[in-house]
Amino acid sequence: MHIPDGYLGPITWGALWLVMIPVWIIAARKLKKDLKTKNVPLLAMGAAFSFVIMMFNIPVLGGSTGHAVGGTLIAIVLGPWAALIAISIVLIIQAFFFGDGGITAIAAESFVLGLILPFVGYYVYRLISTNADISSSRQWIGAGIGSYIGINTAAVVAGILLGLQPILHPAVEGKFQYFMYPISISVPAMAIEHLVLFGFVEAIVTLSVVRYLQQTDPSLLRIQTKAVSIEKAGGVSA
Amino acid sequence: MKIPDWLSESAPCTCCTISVGGKKNFVEKTLVEIACMMERSIFSEKYVSAKGFLQSIDPRVKLITILLLIITISFIHKTEIILGIYALTLVFAYLSKVELFFFIKRVWLFIPIFSGMVAFPAIFNIFTPGEPLITLLQFNRTIHFWIFEFTEISITRAGVLGALLFISRVATSVSLIVLLTLTTRWTDVMKSLRTLGVPQIFILVLSMTYQYIFLLIRVVQEMHLAKKSRTIRTNRTGEGIEKEQNWVASRIGTVLMKSYKMSDEIHSAMVSRGFHGEIKSHGTFKIRNIDRVWTIFSLAFITGVIWLNYLV
């Protein structure tokens, strides 16, 4: 779902920088509440991990393979705000050092993959797994459904952003300036491939990793709930 | 550090061939992708230490001028101007001792070619109506398909020009950023982000991420090599696919556990070395005359380009 430079016009990428800068500041404030120094290596490792998830190819039906984004998984383990920062960092590194994704589009990509995907995925997961025991099957069912809905929502939002281009930047002398297909094409194109393929890859990876963690190291699934309960307790005493 | 020739002249790049079909299984595919990533970073090191033109410019100045150029390109709607800037990136690649063939290959593979596939349908009248260049099919009635209505299928002038504008914009932007990272040490690129107002703590996380990506990737590579070397019969028929999926998931889980534990250890190591949440950067960048000349040249160039685009 990388968006290279030249796909989005200045109105779209400019607006999304204006949206994302305050969102990043809010995320940084939220994370500062916890131990300040500890967040530095935690976020760095979280970001490195989310980069590496994309290197894992997973076999899907028919001999084809795909890779996951892992946004929901990171949000389940580290929380959605940390996931936002970690994924944004990965997108910056990919745009600068690996030429994947555009520089002007960093904010737009962070909006789709760092904000929409993990937040939707995480809150669907929380909705399904509320009050569920760490070993409960509701945990991995929630993770699977959450990640599937999360990535599909992100795909639709990306489709809308791309499809807005012919409207925001109408053709000059008959030729289109940026991404040239309208929403009626871009949204179905993005949605279909994610509904039938990448959504399932994301869901399979997320739910299987959560199941694996339940069996081997359940404490990793508890970091988030612990942080939430500490925050609540702190709020009461303050 | 200079990379010795025997190391940089590696086997033909396997990563640059997009494999279609099910010849490679997921283990091999992952290994190839990892090798490709490593190779890219080794090649980048090679040009950073060359004594070329762009290497001699202050990283901060270079970062800001190149970003300004990328932003400018986003506003330009005359293909000739964008192609002119593209030609200039080739000149500067040459002046910076970057092999042109390597540079062109590195830029064009993947993103512009992918963008070409994206733009291809738009050259037809169905998406971009206009004066036809070549008419492929003529119908004697209006065809209704989904949201489209057409009486012929033809390649239009506006469609071709639009696709050309789109691809040249994508390729020129990629060229500029590749030129930046090929001629600048990644640590200097990160440090220079400070001048753009990126907080120091964020830059620290960014640099640490970049370093640990390579460590974790090595771990992933070893996992896959271990599996490959223990596999006697490759499974291509799709049986036991669930088992394979579980294997991948368990490895991702293991990397997650490893990185979480490692972040704890790194934290202890940092604290025991005096880290308390604040970072001092020892910047040794110095603006020299060549940087001033480059800045004036870039700003004049950008102004000229905008003038050509909007006023002529």
From TrEMBL, chain A:
It is found in: Cell membrane. Coiled coil: none annotated. Keywords: Cell membrane, Membrane, Transmembrane, Transmembrane helix, Transport. It is a multi-pass membrane protein. GO terms for cellular component: plasma membrane. Pfam families: CbiM. The chain crosses the membrane at residues 6-28, 40-61, 73-98, 105-125, 145-164, 185-210. GO terms for biological process: transition metal ion transport. Its main location: membrane. Signal peptide: none annotated. This is ABC-type Co2+ transport system, permease component.
UniProtKB/TrEMBL annotation, chain B:
GO terms for biological process: cobalt ion transport. The chain crosses the membrane at residues 63-95, 107-127, 158-181, 201-220, 293-310. It is found in: Cell membrane. It is a multi-pass membrane protein. One of its GO terms (cellular component) is ATP-binding cassette (ABC) transporter complex. The keyword tRNA-binding does not apply. InterPro entries: ABC/ECF_trnsptr_transmembrane, ECF_CbiQ, ECF_transporter_component. Keywords: Cell membrane, Membrane, Transmembrane, Transmembrane helix. It comes from the Archaea. Pfam families: CbiQ (PF02361). This is Cobalt ABC transporter, permease protein CbiQ.
